[in-house]
Amino acid sequence: xxxxxKGKSFVPGAVGPFADNIPPVHQANxxxxxxxxxxxxxxxSLAELVGAIxxxxxxxxxxxxxxxxxxxxxxxxECLCLEVxxxxxxxxxxxxxxxxxxxxxxxxxxxxxxxxxxxASATGGMISRETLDLF
Length: 135
Known about the structure:
Helix content is 40%, strand content 8%. By secondary structure, the chain is mainly alpha-helical. The relative contact order is 0.15.
C-alpha cells in the first residue's frame, strides 16, 4: 500500500471520505477522445464517447447530475460530451442524424481541411484516405 495514505482506507473511484484524487473532467479533456474516434471511423455516438472516457474520470462525473445541463436525466459526463459534439456541429465539422443518433464528419468546401490536419498532428494520428475523399 502507498505510504502517503498512512493507514487510511483508500477506495479508487469512491466519493466521500474515501475519495480519490482524480480531477473532474472538462470539455478540453473530452475533445481528444472525440477527435481520435472521428479520425478512425468518421462518425461517433454519445455512448461511444462516454464509454471511451469514463474509465479515466471520477465516479461523480458519471452519476446523474440533476440540472448540470438541459436534460436532468443525463450525467455530468454525458452533458460535457454533448457540449463537445454540439460545438463541433455548430462549427460545421459534424452533421447529426437524429434517427441513428450519430454525429458524422462533414467534408466539402464548407469545411477547412486544415482542421483535420490539425487534429491529426495534435493526436499523432493520420488522416485516412476516406477522410481525404470527403474533400
